[in-house]
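dude i think i finally got it to work??
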Amino acid sequence: MKVSDILRIKGDAVHTVLSWNTVEEAATRLAGPPPIGALVVSDDGFRERVDGIVSERDIVRRLATDGVGLMKLTVADVMTRHVITCTPDESIAEVMAKMNRWRHRHLPVVDEGRLCGMISIGDVVKQRLAEMSTEAGVLRDIYLASH
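look at this
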């Protein structure tokens, strides 16, 4: 299975924010509805370019140092600028390894430089569990057929 298979199931909607929005605005968007874990920062006006990513973790970590003043800062002040991405052609195993290595829960999906989706660790786990269930069913059927 590939990232494109996950996007085919969940859709390609990406929640974005502008770098000059306040952290308060970003936090409100994260809280929902629907509640989400991360926003792609895209200032190009077309939601295609990835300029950064801001997650719940980014906000909580800055809250520890900036307190309530954090809410008036801009997204640019707290966002992760070096964004780890994936492509639609990457396998679930490759994406799992990337998420584990970098300790990221969300990866923007970029195809030929264009933002085309977002996947979360929850999406990846859900897909992997479905694969494992299918594999177990096939193995069970093979076992039953041979006895």
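The chain has one domain: 3-146.
im so relieved honestly
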